[in-house]
């Protein structure tokens, strides 16, 4: 079978530009779509243990994650640590935000509270009470299953 002249001057190198372009586009797609759930949780909070802890379901709706630190201050995920007065203003803004996106005019956001195991129970109660005053009525508390599972 003759494929043409076999001299080195007519040798064809494959053009990899299109393939490299596609690889870069796929890489950028996956970088943009990856779930950064590890960044959503602060390592400063050591969760308490509970015998009945279970994984959270996927279809929980809108979640507002709050970390209650051992010193009693609250750190919303992605925000700086704040005290009760600042938290109240921040929750009011979040409540108005959720109402503007709600179809029925109700707040359906669930507060996911991750309290440090060394946090005072009074601080946990105060944060939950403050959230209820700002019209957040659905709560979930995070814990670690006994035995570290």
Elements, N to C (H/E):
HEEEHEHEE
Largest sheet, if any? Answer: 4 strands, mixed
Shape: elongated
Query: How much of the polypeptide forms β-strand, as a percent range?
Result: 15-25%
CA gyration radius, whole angstroms: 26 Å
Low-confidence stretches: none
Query: How helical, in percent, are the residues?
Result: 25-40%
Structural class: alpha/beta
List the SSEs and their pairings:
Layout: H1 17-33, E1 49-50, E2 63-68, E3 74-76, H2 84-101, E4 110-115, H3 121-133, E5 138-141, E6 144-145
Parallel strand pairs: 1-6, 2-4, 4-5
Antiparallel strand pairs: 2-3
Keywords:
alpha/beta; single chain; elongated; 6 strands; two-stranded parallel sheet; 32% helix; four-stranded mixed sheet; 149 residues; 3 helices
Offer a concise description of the structure.
The chain is of the alpha/beta class.
Please tell me about this protein's structure.
The protein is of the alpha/beta class and 149 residues long. The chain has a domain at 46-145. Helices cover 32% and strands 15% of the residues. The protein has three helices and six strands. It has helices at residues 17-33, 84-101, 121-133, and strands spanning 49-50, 63-68, 74-76, 110-115, 138-141, 144-145. The chain has a four-stranded mixed β-sheet, covered by helices on one side. A hairpin with a 5-residue loop joins strand 2 (63-68) and strand 3. The longest helix is centred in the middle third of the chain and has 18 residues, at 84-101. It starts with 16 loop residues before the first helix and ends with a strand. 13% of the residues are buried.
């Amino acid at each position: 079978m003759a494929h043409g002249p076999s001299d080195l001057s007519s040798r064809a190198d494959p053009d990899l530009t299109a393939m490299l372009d596609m690889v870069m586009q796929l890489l950028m797609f996956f970088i943009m779509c990856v779930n950064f759930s590890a960044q959503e949780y602060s390592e400063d909070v050591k969760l308490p243990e509970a015998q009945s802890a279970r994984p959270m379901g996927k279809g929980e709706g809108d979640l507002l994650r709050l970390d209650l630190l051992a010193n009693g201050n609250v750190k919303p995920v992605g925000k700086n640590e704040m005290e009760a007065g600042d938290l109240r203003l921040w929750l009011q803004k979040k409540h108005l935000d959720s109402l503007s996106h709600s179809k029925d005019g109700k707040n359906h956001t669930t507060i996911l509270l991750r309290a440090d195991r060394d946090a005072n129970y009074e601080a946990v109660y105060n944060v939950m009470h403050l959230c209820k005053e700002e019209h957040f009525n659905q709560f979930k508390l995070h814990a670690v299953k006994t035995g570290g599972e």
